[in-house]
Design goal:
Layout (H helix, E strand, L loop, with lengths): L2 E4 L2 H12 L13 H9 L5 H13 L7 H12 L38 H8 L2 H34 L6 E11 L10 E10 L1 E6 L8 E4 L17 E6 L7 H19 L1 H4 L3 H9 L12 H22 L8 H14 L4 H14 L3 H10 L3 H5 L1 H17 L11 H17 L3 H14 L4 H13 L3 H4 L5 H25 L6 H17 L3 H13 L8 H9 L6
Parallel strand pairs: 1-4, 4-6
Antiparallel strand pairs: 2-3, 5-6
C-alpha cells in the first residue's frame, strides 16, 4: 500500500532547532519527554549567537492565539518540503506551499550564496549530523512498535471498504512530436509517452515532538523523492510524537482518506448531478467552514471519511459500544456536519448497508449518493442537538466511583488544549460548545475565558451575517459582539495567574487594543497596548505586537 513508517533526518533537524529556540510546550503540562531533555544537554554548547537568532525567529513567527504544540509542529511539516541535508532547499513553487507554512520559508533561505540558511547553520554548528544517528535510533524504536498495528489498520481499512488502495494513478499520455515539420517523407512523427503518479503514506515518528502529538497532512509533497509526475494530495504525511500507546486514530484518519480520494475523484462527474442540492444543504449550515459551501468534492470526501471513521470505531467497540457507542458516533458526526460535511449522517447510515451486503465501495458509491434525502439531511441538526448536549454533559461530568480518573486540573487542561486546536482550525462553533461546558463548571477559568473571547471576536453574529438586515442593525450587532469580546478578555486578565499565565494576559491586552483600534478609539487602544508592554518581553507573549500597536493603529499599513 506504499506505507512507510520511519524517522526522518529533516524533521529531526527542524524540530531540534525549534527545541533549541525555546519550544518547551509539552502535552497536558507533563515534563518534557526523555529525548527532549537529552537534546537540551546535547545542544548546551551551541553558539549563543546562533541560538539567539533561532529563538528570535521562533518567537517572531509564533501565531497569536494558536496552541503552541500545534504551532511548533509546523516546522516538522515544513521540513518535509525540504531536500536532504545539508542543502535543505525547497524546489516547489511558493504558491503551492500551504498558507500556514509560507511565513516560515525564511527558515530555509540564505541571505547570500556564501551564507547558509538558519536551519543550515544549526545543522552544522550544533553538530546535528553527528547527533542524527542517536535520535533517529530512538525514532526507529518507536517505528518498530508501530509496524504491526499499522499493518492491522491497513488491513481493517481495506477490508471495510472491500477494495484496494490505489498507489498508481495513470495520467493522460504525453504526445511528443519528433522530426522536422517541413521534412520530406512522412513528415513529423509522434511518440506516445505513458505517465503515472505514485501515491504514498509517510508515517514519520518524531521523538522531539510533544508527547502524544499527531498531525495529518495531504497538502504538501514529501521531497524525499523526485517530484516528477506527482501533485499535491498524492502524499499523506502523518507526524507522530512519542507516546505510551500507539496513536492509531491519526493513522486511520490518513488511511481512510488515502483509500477514498481516488474513488471520490472518479465519481465526481456523476456526483455533480446533485451539485445544487449538496451546496444548498451545506449553505444552510451557518457554521460551515470554507470552502465546504462551494466544493462538492470536499463535502462528499469529508462526509464519507468522517462516516467511515465513526463506523470503524463503532464496529471495534462491539455491540455494547464499550468506549464508543451510538451517541459518541452521533456527537462526532455532528461536529463534522457543523463544519460543512453535510452528508456525514447519510453516509454513516448508508455504510451500515454496505457492511451488510459486503460489496466494494466502488460498486456501492453511486447508489449511496443517489438515495440521499436532502430534506431529511437539512433537519439533522434538530435530531442530533439533544444527543450532542447529553454527550457533552457526560464528558464534562466526573467519572463514576471506582473509575480511574485524571485530576480535575489535568482534565480541564486537556479540554482547553482541545479548544485551542479547534480555534486554530477556525472551528469556532465546536470551540464555543466546548468552552461553554468548561465555563459552566469553572466560571473563572482564565484560559477558557480567553478562548471564548477569541471565538466571540472572530465569529460574526447572526444579525451581521444576515444579508437582508439593515446596515445600522449590522453595525450595532458588531459593536455589541466586540464589547462582549473585550469583557471576556478583561475577565481572563482578572482571573489569570500573574506567574503561569502572564503570556495570556499580555495577549489579552493586545487583542483589546486591536478591537479598540478597529472601533477607532485610538487613545483607549494605546492604553491597552501600554499595559501589555508594562508586562515585559515574555516567552510566548505579545510584547512586539504591543509595541507595534502603540506605534501605529492595528491594520494600518
Amino acid at each position: 500500500m506504499n506505507v512507510y513508517i520511519e524517522g526522518d533526518v529533516r524533521v529531526f533537524v527542524a524540530m531540534a532547532a525549534v527545541n533549541a529556540a525555546g519550544f518547551d510546550y509539552e502535552t497536558g503540562g507533563q515534563p518534557l519527554s526523555p529525548a527532549r531533555v537529552e537534546l537540551r544537554k546535547d545542544l548546551a554548547s551551541l553558539e549563543p549567537k546562533v541560538k539567539e537568532e533561532m529563538a528570535a525567529f521562533y518567537k517572531s513567527h509564533r501565531r497569536a492565539g494558536i496552541d503552541e504544540g500545534a504551532d511548533g509542529l509546523r516546522y516538522g511539516a515544513l521540513a518535509l518540503l525540504m531536500t536532504q541535508p545539508p542543502l535543505f532547499s525547497i524546489n516547489v513553487k511558493e504558491e503551492t506551499i500551504p498558507d500556514d507554512l509560507r511565513p516560515l520559508l525564511a527558515f530555509t533561505h540564505s541571505s547570500s550564496p556564501s551564507s547558509p540558511s538558519l536551519i543550515g547553520q544549526i545543522y552544522v554548528k550544533a553538530g546535528l549530523k553527528q547527533l542524527a544517528q542517536k535520535y533517529l535510533g530512538v525514532a526507529e524504536q518507536y517505528a518498530a512498535l508501530y509496524r504491526r498495528p499499522v499493518g492491522e489498520t491497513i488491513f481493517d481499512t481495506l477490508d471495510y471498504f472491500h477494495t484496494n488502495a490505489e498507489t498508481i494513478i495513470n495520467m493522460k499520455p504525453l504526445v511528443i512530436s519528433t522530426g522536422e515539420p517541413g521534412a520530406k517523407a512522412a513528415g513529423p512523427k509522434q511518440r506516445i509517452v505513458q505517465r503515472s503518479r505514485t501515491r504514498q503514506v509517510f508515517i514519520i515518528v518524531d521523538p522531539l515532538a510533544p508527547i502524544g502529538a499527531a498531525t495529518v497532512r495531504d497538502d504538501l509533497l514529501n521531497q524525499k523523492d523526485d517530484l516528477f509526475s506527482r501533485r499535491i494530495g498524492d502524499d499523506y504525511l502523518v507526524i507522530l510524537g512519542p507516546s505510551r500507546t500507539q496513536n492509531i486514530e491519526a493513522i486511520r484518519r490518513a488511511l481512510i482518506r488515502f483509500v477514498i480520494d481516488p474513488l471520490v475523484e472518479r465519481h465526481l462527474k456523476a456526483s455533480l448531478e446533485y451539485k445544487d442540492q449538496i451546496l444548498k444543504l451545506t449553505g444552510q449550515i451557518a457554521t460551515a467552514q470554507r470552502p465546504f459551501p462551494s466544493s462538492v468534492y470536499l463535502v462528499i470526501r469529508e462526509s464519507l471519511a468522517q462516516a467511515a471513521e465513526a463506523r470503524m470505531k463503532r464496529i471495534q467497540a462491539g455491540p455494547a459500544g464499550v468506549g464508543y457507542n451510538d451517541d459518541d458516533a452521533t456527537y462526532d458526526l455532528a461536529q463534522a456536519y457543523m463544519r460543512g460535511a453535510s452528508l456525514a449522517f447519510h453516509f454513516y447510515d448508508s455504510l451500515i448497508g454496505l457492511e451488510k451486503v459486503g460489496i466494494s465501495i466502488e460498486d456501492f458509491f453511486d447508489q449511496m449518493l443517489a438515495t440521499t434525502n436532502f430534506d431529511r439531511e437539512s433537519g439533522r441538526a434538530k435530531q442530533f442537538e439533544p444527543i450532542v448536549a447529553k454527550v457533552a454533559g457526560a464528558r464534562a461530568s466526573p467519572p463514576k466511583t471506582g473509575e480511574a480518573a485524571p485530576s480535575a486540573e489535568a482534565a480541564s487542561l486537556r479540554r482547553i488544549i482541545q479548544s485551542d486546536d479547534l480555534i486554530r482550525q477556525r472551528r469556532f462553533a465546536d470551540a464555543r460548545l466546548l468552552l461553554a461546558e468548561i465555563l459552566a463548571a469553572e466560571p473563572r477559568n482564565a484560559r477558557a475565558l480567553y478562548g471564548m473571547a477569541q471565538v466571540v471576536n472572530q465569529t460574526p453574529s447572526a444579525a451581521e451575517a444576515d444579508s437582508k438586515a439593515e446596515e445600522n442593525d449590522k453595525i450595532q450587532a458588531q459593536h455589541e459582539r466586540l464589547e462582549k469580546a473585550i469583557k471576556l478578555y478583561l475577565s481572563a486578565i482578572d482571573a489569570g495567574s500573574a506567574e503561569s499565565e502572564r503570556w495570556m494576559i499580555q495577549w489579552s491586552y493586545v487583542f483589546i487594543g486591536r478591537i479598540l483600534d478597529f472601533q477607532e478609539f485610538r487613545a483607549d487602544a494605546i492604553a491597552a497596548y501600554e499595559k501589555a508592554i508594562s508586562l515585559g518581553d515574555i516567552q510566548g507573549g505579545a510584547y512586539k505586537e504591543a509595541v507595534d500597536g502603540k506605534q501605529k493603529p492595528f491594520g494600518q499599513k
